[in-house]
Structure formats: C-alpha cells, structure tokens
C-alpha cells in the first residue's frame, strides 16, 4: 500500500483541508503484507473519524493499512473537526465538503473509481453517523455504509450533551428529529424512494453509552426492511473494539471481484 498525507485547499470551506489516503499497491517483495490491485480505478472506502479525533486517528489506532491491502481497497480519511458531518449553522459547510467536494477532489488526485458499486463509507461514533448519512442520503453514489458504535439517534444524543455546541452545529435542536440530519428520517426516505438500496452494517458494544440508540435504529431499519447487518457483543467505546470491528466491516463490504491485476506475497 501507498500512504499519502494530503493537504489541499477546499473551495467549500475556504481554508486548507487535510486527509490521509492509502492506495493499493501490488507487491511481491514486501515482507508480511499481502497486497493486490483489482483494477485501474480503485474501489474506495471513505473512513470517518469521531468527535474528538481527526484524519490521523485510524492510522494511529488501528492497522487499517494492513487490513485494507488484501482487498485492493483505497481508503480516504478526511478531517472535519467537530462538525457532525453537517453544514453547520454557525461554522463551515462540512456536509457539502464531505459529500460533494471531497470525492471530486480525491478522484482528481488519485485513481479512484466513481462508480456507485465501488464506493463505501464507514466510521466510528460521530463518523458512524456520517457514514450512514452518506449512504442513506446518496444511495445512488454509495453501495454500502457502516457504523461502528455510531451516533445513530442524533436527536436523542444532543439532549444529553452540550446543547450550546450542538445548537451551533444543527440550529434549533427541537427541529432536529425528522430533519435531513436525522438518520431515522433518511432511512425512511430510502425505504420509500430509492431504487438501489445501500447495504448497511451496524455494530455496537453492549456496554457502550450509545448502545440504546443503536438498538432503536436497528429496530427501525428492520421495520423498514432495509438490508442491515447488525452485530453486538460485550464492549465499550474504545479502540480495541473498533480495531477488531473494522476488520469485520472490510470483510463485509460488497467489493466487486474484478480480476486482480497482480498480487503476491513474500513468504521469506
């Protein structure tokens, strides 16, 4: 895999932005790595960070580069601060950035596929919310979305956290439920309107403070008959759990089985 620390100017934000990118590289001489490429344009996972983190966190806390190598999968990890992947009422337009500008900019820099079947989103906590928001808002662009310990019931969550901060993000919090920032509303829209349903994955530890909200969203998706894979096990809101579960996400992703251009393993 190739690792790129990428800094670029965002026209949407009006400031410089940052992302980490890992790209497939078919190798035969790299000890301890099995790498492959499945096409000239790479399938891509947009991997999103949580509220207290930034674009570096997945590389610092997990072995995502090693995990992704065997799938021939590019991974784009952007920074969005504490925006909740939203066009903030008082702040920057991070939803427009993440959903519109970032994919276009990343594809202009790197050989990433623009086809729906090759694009996926995943994230943890706030990033789990962002990943499901991408997949449910744009089922025509994303084949799958995965949430690891995600904020799936955002309207309920903001009542328990700093209301001033989330008012700056979302505006009137009494209007959040049922809005375009509410995953429950977006899931209902997809069930009623979308011709191509995105595959959804959701997991949460049973001791996580977000567990009850995840159960509510799971049950909502099941009532709507969305294609949801749900997993739970003992666990809290921590990186040992997410390091394990991101491996489950990668194995679950519907990555198309192109003929591999080349691959190899050095068993020396």
TrEMBL record:
GO terms assigned for molecular function: acyltransferase activity, transferring groups other than amino-acyl groups
SUPFAM superfamilies from the UniProt entry: alpha/beta-Hydrolases (SSF53474)
Protein name (Swiss-Prot/TrEMBL): Esterase
Membrane-spanning ranges: none
Pfam families hit by this protein: Esterase (PF00756)
Lineage of the species this protein comes from: Bacteria, Bacillati, Bacillota, Bacilli, Bacillales
Domain of life of the native organism: Bacteria
């Amino acid at each position: 895999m190739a690792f790129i620390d990428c800094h670029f100017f965002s026209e949407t934000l009006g400031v410089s932005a940052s992302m980490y990118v890992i790209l497939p590289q078919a190798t035969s001489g790299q000890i301890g790595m099995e790498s492959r490429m499945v096409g000239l344009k790479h399938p891509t996972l947009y991997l999103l960070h949580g509220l207290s983190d930034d674009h570096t966190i997945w590389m610092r806390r997990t072995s995502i580069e090693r995990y992704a190598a065997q799938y021939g999968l590019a991974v784009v990890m952007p920074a969005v601060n504490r925006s909740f992947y939203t066009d903030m009422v008082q702040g920057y337009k991070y939803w427009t950035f993440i959903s519109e500008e970032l994919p276009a900019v990343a594809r202009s820099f790197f050989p990433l596929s623009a086809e729906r079947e090759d694009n996926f989103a995943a994230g943890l906590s706030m990033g789990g919310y962002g990943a499901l928001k991408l997949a449910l808002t744009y089922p025509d662009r994303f084949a799958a979305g995965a949430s690891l310990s995600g904020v799936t019931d955002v309207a309920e969550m903001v009542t328990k956290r700093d209301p001033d901060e989330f008012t700056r993000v979302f505006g009137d919090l009494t209007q959040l439920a049922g809005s375009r920032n509410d995953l429950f509303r977006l899931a209902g829209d997809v069930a009623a309107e979308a011709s191509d349903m995105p595959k959804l994955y959701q997991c949460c530890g049973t001791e996580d403070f977000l567990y009850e909200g995840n159960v509510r969203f799971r049950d909502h998706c099941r009532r709507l008959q969305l294609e949801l894979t749900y997993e739970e096990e003992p666990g809290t809101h921590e990186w040992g759990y997410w390091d394990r579960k991101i491996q489950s996400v990668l194995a679950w992703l519907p990555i198309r089985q192109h003929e591999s251009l080349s691959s190899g393993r050095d068993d020396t």
